Amino acid sequence: MNAIESRLEQRGVTLKRFDTPLQQAEQLAAAVVERLNMAIAERGQASLALSGGRSPVRFLDALARQAIDWSRVRLTLVDERWVPESDAQSNAALLRSRLAAVFPRLQWLPLYRGVTPAADAAQVDAQLADWLPLDLVVLGMGVDGHTASLFPHAEGVAEWLNGNCDAGCVASRAADGTPRLTLTGRALHSARFRLLAISGDAKLRTLCTAVEADQPARWPISAFVQAPMDIYYCPEDGQPDDAPV
Ligand SMILES: O=C1O[C@H](COP(=O)(O)O)[C@@H](O)[C@H](O)[C@H]1O
């Protein structure tokens, strides 16, 4: 076992390595469905929060192929760019297009509402309260160590990373200052299970640094790398040909 695996083991987290992006995507989709089916069997429905960005395309395509009672699944995002779905940056648009085969059957809670970032976050927060604890959260991570839209050293981030944060959804900003909406520690820590998907050497190095440093305000991902969580890692960061750029 190498250094990162043993560090993660101390936190009760398992790192699963995959040789190809396709294997990683398919195994991640299978793990999601297993968790959703467990929740449906126990409580009659399942709640899921997914990440956006560039990385999840293959995973979303694999998820859309899964046979599960999608009408019992409540879906939201862990974060959103404050843009309408017509914008290429929209995480909601990514989910709607890659999950097109199952999307009409899901119960969908969008983050962007088009009022103001703060008003949208307050509206989502009120609706999300009924969904907590989420059954499953699938996180991604940027090379800078951000996860969801919880960015290093952002104003408010130390509080938002905390499980006792007042709100489950807040208005945040990306490193370039653009407005975002993000779930906070209140929603992400209380999830019954978390999966983290990362690809490429650079992200694995970030994860190692984040876990080693354990300074959540600098490396927001480190706040969530704790049980219950599995990490799905592939050294290759390949996107399918039809992935949005
Ligand atoms: O801004 C975002 O970044 C992270 C990582 O995105 P990726 O493009 O490197 O995959 C993502 O998890 C988050 O949902 C997204 O809005």
Quick structural summary:
One of its GO terms (biological process) is carbohydrate metabolic process. It is built from eight helices and ten strands.
What report would you give on this structure?
With 245 residues, this protein is of the alpha/beta class. It has a single domain, classed as Rossmann fold, CATH 3.40.50. The chain is 33% helix and 19% strand. Helix 8 (201-213) links the parallel strand 9 (194-199) and strand 10 (229-234). The model has no long low-confidence stretch (mean pLDDT 97). The structure holds ligand LXAUTJHC. The site of ligand LXAUTJHC has 13 residues, from loops. The ligand O=C1O[C@H](COP(=O)(O)O)[C@@H](O)[C@H](O)[C@H]1O binds next to loops.
Instruction: Write down the Rg.
Output: 17 Å
Which fold name fills CATH's third level, the topology? Rossmann fold
Rounded mean pLDDT is 97
Bound molecules: the ligand O=C1O[C@H](COP(=O)(O)O)[C@@H](O)[C@H](O)[C@H]1O
Are there runs of 5+ residues with pLDDT below 50, and where? none
How far is the N terminus from the C terminus?
36 Å
Instruction: Please provide the ordered H/E string of secondary-structure elements.
Output: HEHEHEEHEHEHEEHEHE
For the largest beta-sheet, the strand count, sense and barrel status come to: 7 strands, parallel
Strand tally = 10
Instruction: Specify the CATH class.
Output: Alpha Beta
Strand content: 15-25%
Keywords: Hydrolase
EC number: 3.1.1.31
InterPro entries: 6-phosphogluconolactonase_DevB, 6PGL, Glc/Gal-6P_isomerase, NagB/RpiA_transferase-like
Protein name: 6-phosphogluconolactonase
